[in-house]
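hey can u run this one w/ biotin bound, need the C-alpha cells asap thx
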Amino acid sequence: MKLPETLVGLSVRELGRHSIYLPQVDSTNLYLKENGESLPHGTLCYTGQQTAGRGRLGRSWIVPPGQSLAMSVLFKLDNINKLYYMDKLPLLCGVAVVQALVSLTGHPFQIKWPNDIVCSGFKVCGILCESRMTKEGGFAVAGIGINLSQPADFFEEAQLPHAASLQMLLPEPPPAFGETAAAVMNHLDSLWCLYDKEGFEPIYAPYEKMCMTIGKEVRILSPLGQAVMEGKAVGIGQDGSLLVQAADGTVHSVQAGEASVRGKDGYI
Ligand code: BTN
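ok here u go:
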C-alpha cells in the first residue's frame, strides 16, 4: 500500500532525486538551512505539519496537521558569483506551482506578484525563498506552502480573509499530498534545468502570462502595511522586481523582499 507521502508520478532529472519526508518539523525551510551543507543539491524536504512555519516579510505560516503541504527545495551553488541566479527562484517556483495545480486539477490558477498563487481570488499557496552563505559559496532554499484541505473556519480563526484551501474552492476533492509534491517537483525541475541552460528569457513570457498583477492599478505596501506608492503595474524587471508606473509617468522598480502589493480596491 502506498503511503500518502509517496511522491506518486515523480519524474525529475536534477531536483528532488533525494527527498526527506518529516511527519512534523518546525519549518522545512529552516531544516534545509540548518542541514543544507551536508545534503545534496536538489534535496526536497516536505511535511504535512509545521510548528513554526515562516512566511514572507517576517510573517508566520501555519500548517495544521495533515491539511496542507509544506515543501522546501535546496539549491546549492558551486560558485558564489552565481548567487544572483537565485533572485529568479521565487518566480520559477510560482510558475511551477501554477503549472502543477493546473495539471492536477484542470482549474485556472494565477500568480499575484511576486509569488502568491491565487485561485478564484483567494491565496492558496505562498512561497518563501531564503539563502545562506557558506565557505563553499552558499545555498538557497525555496519553500512552498499549499493549502490543500483546511476548512473555512481555519482561515477565519487565523484572520486570513484572502486565503482559502483547494478543498474550499474546487468542486472535486483536492489533489493528494504526495502527488501534489511530485507534480510541483516535476515542473520546478524542468524550469530549473531550462533556466540553468538558457537563463530567464524563455520563462519570462509564461510568468507574465500567469501574473494577474501586470496591467492592474496597484498599491504598494511596506512590510508594516503602510501604502508607499500607487500606480499601474507594467511589467517585471530583469531582477524579478515589479515595475510600477506612477501617475507622473515615472516607472519604479519594487523589490519583493521589501513590499507587498494590493489591488486598488482589495487583495488582488
Ligand atoms: C508567504 O508568506 O506567502 C510565504 C509562505 C511560505 C510557506 C512555506 S511552507 C514551506 C516552507 N517552510 C516555511 O517555513 N515556509 C515555507
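Residues 27-29, 50, 53-56, 59, 61, 70-72, 116, 126-128, 143-145 surround biotin (CB under 6 Å). anyway lmk if its weird
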